[in-house]
Amino acid sequence: MRIRRAVKVGAPLAALALMAGACGGGGDEGSENKETLADIPAIDINETDRSELKDGGTFVWGINSFPPQFQVFHTQGNEAHGASIVNGVMPRAHYYDEKGQPHPDEDFVLSSEASDDGSTVTFELNPDAKWSTGDPITWKDYAAQVETVGAHRDNAEKFDIGDTTGYERIGEVEKGKDEFEVIFHFDTPFSEWPRLFDALYPAKYMKDPKKFNEAYKDEIPVTAGPFGDVEVDKTSESVTLNRNDDWWGDPAKLDSIVVRAYEPDALGQVMNNGEIDGFYLGYDAAAYDQLKDADGVRLTKAIDNAYRHLTFNGGEDRVTSDVEVRNALVHAIDRAQMAKATLSGVNWTTDPTANRLLRSTQTGFQDNSEGYGEYDPEKAAKMLDDAGWTRESDDAVRTKDGEKLQLQWVIPSGLQNTADEAEIAKAQLKEIGVGVKVETVPTNVFFSEYIVPGNYDATTFVYSSTNPYAGYSAENFIGPVGEDENGNPTWGNNLHNFSTDEINTAFDDLSKITDPKEYAAKANEIDKMLWEQSMAVPLFQRPGIYAVDPEMANWGARGLASVDYESMGYTK
């Protein structure tokens, strides 16, 4: 493995990209795994030195949904599979080790340092770095991204930005001693600054709203990474990343990476058939049973930087807009039963403990659900009574002012565990007079046509983080982030479509804290606020189980660590 020089990037150490989840099954509900989260390692990737790897080969990476957008700062680009593709072909300022500590990615940023008061951050750029067009990557590319993603442009409303956090605090970007030094002047210090520029795009694709919104939707026209020359095939739902022969860093060991989408319940079979070389198995009980003893397959086991949750749409026109209703619904649903039904089939701890902002391997991880997460149907029924939702008989759906308390529960097709969750909730909510209509929609439009635009009342899916910072999840909970052309509030990547001033302020305060213990304490304070609002109610911390060719090295369950794409390869 290559060693990168560490410099001054001190900051406390999860925003989360979206994943529908993995197929699951009930397993043996009478069994119980006594293992705890503390027993599970932080990383499992068959870590191997580059010198021990073959040159060449193709890795076929199976995924369960095709990305709708490769501009990761677009509202439709906040999706985990898209980010996995982009990270192999676009610049990033920093990478993270297995403890979640940031380091400059010297292929792009030779050094990075903040001033003592946090008012300025300086990057020394690698002068060898260049776009696939042959143009050098300079301070102008960073400045253009700040202007757009920070919503500083006069026509900001024309850019469909998912999250401005951090970028909006940069008041000025200055050219340093030459075009390869960039100085960021922060109006308000931002302790999580190493997570900015986790992907960088060329200036011309940031300045023009049409290019920003559309140019990276169906292709990746300009790249700068160990892989490039990207071939996007929407018909076969595959993306091919080819080794970049003009790459200035350590050359990629693989010739190519092919990322191919399948129906979620098909991934285990195509892996068993040898059609793919690796995929996130998670809690797919059928795939686990099929592959656990299969020749040519290794199953990883490590903590994953993600959690599965139950989400309610709190938008003004939804039946779940009232916090008392949302809180009552949580008390009416047995989250432990959901976790056990999903996890017992994959030999993973059925402990449902999860924290929205901290993983179990991080400082300060704790359960903050007391008073809001307990399964208590009697309490739930009383809360709905107090909120004015009445019930004429034991079999009736509650009503208020002529409206029925019936949820539109949207789930993606091909995900048995998601269907199981919906059916468990439906049966339990019926007991307290809440109706549930389960609506199954195609996986490839689940987010783009239902969850992102807010066409749902309830659903379950995964928030999967691309970095270790608790504040990175702010985009999922704060807002509104602006207004559309008609003056209506926009919520960006906050798919709940509501927030509170208290939550907004707390995330703002979190981003200024540099002491790790104080940072963790504030993260837990925020997690409690989110429990109070029943936002992204945790079901369990997601298992880090990947199925992978045993000869593939440096890929699998990474926990808090970044993928080193050029060091992925097959052992000799």
Automatic annotation (TrEMBL):
Gene3D superfamilies in alphabetical order: Dipeptide-binding Protein, Domain 1, Dipeptide-binding Protein, Domain 3, Periplasmic binding protein-like II
Protein name stated in the entry: ABC transporter family substrate-binding protein
Highest rank taxon of the organism: Bacteria
Entry keyword Signal: yes
PANTHER family: MONOACYL PHOSPHATIDYLINOSITOL TETRAMANNOSIDE-BINDING PROTEIN LPQW-RELATED, PERIPLASMIC BINDING COMPONENT OF ABC TRANSPORTER
A Pfam match: SBP_bac_5
All copies of domain Solute-binding protein family, residue ranges: 111-477
InterPro entries: Peptide/Ni-bd, SBP_5, SBP_5_dom
